[in-house]
Amino acid sequence: MITATQGVKVTSTCATCDGVLVRDVGQFIDRGRLSWGVEGRCRLCSDAWCEMGEGPAPEEIRQALMAEHGTTRLRLATREAGLVPVLRALREVCHLSLGEARLAAADLTGVGLVGTSVEMAHLAEGLRKRSVATTLVPSPA
Length: 141
Ligand SMILES: [Zn+2]
Hints:
The chain is of the alpha+beta class. The protein has helices spanning 59-69, 83-94, 98-109, 117-129; strands spanning 2-13, 20-30, 33-42, 48-54, 71-76, 113-115, 134-139.
């Protein structure tokens, strides 16, 4: 079951025929897991492929999504949230070290963590599972 998704079409030059290559890139949450995908097809020749993965998307995909759709900022809904469940969710969802999780937790209580809408929805879900309420604020590109 896909619970969140965001995509963008990126065009470039086909390496095979110099035609227009259209890549459909996106991020989604599939059964609670952060995932990404690329579907490429040349408008001129028969070049086509599909690639999918789990976990953080390649930086190129993230940048394309944020350029098209903007970013989303995630903040804790209250300052009363306990630090322990926040650190646990960050380490579990984002696979951060304890030091990295502490820095991310400080951002969550302050200016907010920024990423693609799907990444932030995924993290918000992980925090919600640990009873930590959050606020998602989209900032358009
Ligand atoms: Zn081609």
